[in-house]
Amino acid sequence: MKIQRILPHLLAVGMAVQLSIAPVVAADLAKAAPATAGFSSEGLDRIEGALKPYLADGQLAGAVVGVARQGKLVYLKSFGAADTEAGKPMSDDAIFRIASMTKAITSVAVMMLQEEGRLLIKDPVSKYLPEFKAQQVMVIRDPKDAKAGYDTVPANREITIRDLLSHSSGITYRFWGNAAAAVYEEGGVSDGLTPTAGVVCDGMRKLAKLPLLHQPGTAFEYGINTDVLGCLVEVVSGMPLDRFMQERIFTPLRMTDTQFYVSAAQRSRVVGLYIPDGKGGMTKAGDEPIRWGTLAFSANLPYSDQRTYFSGGAGLTSTAMDYLRFTQMLLNGGTLDGQRLLGPKTVELMRTNAIGTISLWDTLDPAATGNLGDKFGLGFGIRSERGLTELGSVGEFMWAGIYNTRYWMDPKENLAIVFMSQRVPRLPDIEEKVHAAVYQAIVK
């Protein structure tokens, strides 16, 4: 009996040793000349033209843009500086804080668990996280008077995993400055943008005690939903979120520069984060936590190698090439280079409208956030016919990170675009001009 008890442990240790010594080699997508993938090379040169004015007037320190079509890399180029103060040029393999681009990866992790029969996205969250049972909903006494306070009523139903994936649970972010913002801050709920003690489930237990901003399923409210999903992955899988992502997503996809904190060997490639200098330009943020309006963040987030709080909504760092590999996996219906993470029907479900007649524009301002689509699936903004206000395709799915990072996937064109820079506040126009430059370069 003793051997039977010890053997599984020995096997697990042996597998862990094998994983730790097996080299994982970084991989680029196969390269192709733009013309072979239906692009005009001269047209793609306009990407640089779109960025030059922002680089010249100091609104952007540097950027990396990657474009893949038909599974081939047709464009990868770096611009400007990774650190203007140090005179360090940007490199194609620079590492960026991707903030909310983390959400797509966490959403994939949840859908992997559904495929394995370990959960159903229709399940109430309380089935796995009991603290989320019997929640209350805020009723604002006077929308015109922030000091008037609020009352609470019971939620009409429990929030589901699907509600979290589609940001229709009633959970919000404290940095929006809405009625729940002060409640979240007083409750000690982290947005995941600054180093936080403990583990993510500690923070989500605090969140569960606070009222929802809306009744579940009645509004799109972009919020800390994906941190709850990260906690869910930890509970259901029995693994910390960083380990689950490393073993189940990053290693199979050979995303060697995507992680919750960077190693000592990688630190020289981390791009500086830039904030307004008060004189019309930008300056590199220091290591101390920064308050920008209602947003609190830390420029040194990637260096905290003792972290245990892994934000499923905002915590990762990555490179343009790593993220292109992730987007290509989704465009391929869940597989890349012989490694299948999801089935095609799961990917199809993820990029299908999950909020019905509700629009992102009901709560998001495109002038401030950029056009992130007008519908939302299970982890992504989606462009519908109504939302097609610029070059692109119906069915394109996308999202962005608060530090001026962005990705787009277009199944009709078999096209992926990744834009990486590091500044707060975001300038969505930069991202969208890059997007337009890529689409105008398509000739067949």
Overall description:
With 444 residues, this protein is α+β, with helices and mostly antiparallel strands. The chain folds into two domains: 271 residues, Beta-lactamase (3-Layer(aba) Sandwich), CATH 3.40.710; 120 residues, Methane Monooxygenase Hydroxylase, Chain G, domain 1, CATH 1.20.58. Helices cover 30% and strands 16% of the residues. It is built from 13 helices and 18 strands. Strands 3-2-1-18-17-16-15-14 form an eight-stranded antiparallel sheet, with helices on both faces. Strand 12 and strand 13 form a beta hairpin. Helix 3 packs antiparallel against helix 13 and helix 4 runs parallel beside helix 8. The longest helix is centred in the first third of the chain and has 20 residues. The N terminus is likely disordered.
